[in-house]
Design goal:
The protein is about 30% helix and about 35% strand. With about 100 residues, it is α+β, with helices and mostly antiparallel strands.
Length: about 100
């Protein structure tokens, strides 16, 4: 049985994610690759106590990375979930961490 904290691995706190939160009431999270949209919606509603309008997901492709000398490597691929909430004011994720 997955708990909501197993589904939401970590919030993504980039400049774009913060701007989405302030202007469009969207939260951005890293989620497991096998997480579904209904699971993500339920996890956000349970943890933050807000109503979710929609969930969009995308798989972030692995970027190349240097590992030692002449050894090409890659960062891991991960799944990003962008969740739009029904709220008048944005939720400050940085305060909750």
């Amino acid at each position: 049985m997955k708990t909501p904290y197993d589904i939401l691995i970590r919030p993504v706190l980039t400049e774009k994610a913060v701007r989405l939160n302030e202007k469009e009431n969207k939260l951005v999270f890293e989620v497991p690759l096998n997480a579904t949209k209904p699971e993500i919606k339920q996890a956000v509603e349970q943890i933050f106590g807000v109503k979710v309008k929609e969930v969009r997901t995308t798989i972030v492709k692995p970027k190349p990375k240097r590992v030692g000398f002449r050894n090409p490597g890659f960062k891991k691929k991960w799944k990003k979930a962008i969740v739009r909430i029904e709220s008048e004011k944005p939720i400050n994720i940085a305060e909750l961490i």
